[in-house]
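The protein record filed below.
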Amino acid sequence: MMYVLLVLPVAALMATVFFSVRAVKNGKKAKTAVIGQLAAFLLVCAITVSAPMVANAVSEEPEANATTTSQAAAAGDNTKGMGLLAAAIVTSLAGIGGGIAVAAAAPAAIGATAEDPKSFGKSLIFVALGEGIALYGLLVSILILNKI
């Protein structure tokens, strides 16, 4: 069951990428394809997060042959999974935000340095601030993982 929960979302995302690329080659606008790709990604994420919770809720039905209480408690404990999910979300969003910040600041810094070489130091600070966002996200992710 564990492999199915891994393979199905990956296969679904690969299929949506294939269909998006194929749609753009057939004349569909790239913006529309990206919006469709993001919608499919969010749908797969929602299903991936909710499916283990539903399976866990079904497996918690009372049974006559309960082996130990520790195994039952381990089966009903989702805190580690949610902590890992939180760490992944923090790292990914911080990386995306840092990438957007650097993508906006780096070309401007290069243009400013080309016009006035004395502005290199000031420009470098703005690019480093954008990279700092990703580092702060990584730091928060490490702190979350230490609490698990």
User: Anything to note?
Assistant: The mean pLDDT is 80. The chain has five helices and no strands. Residues 79-115 form the longest helix (37 residues). The two ends are 24 Å apart (CA to CA).
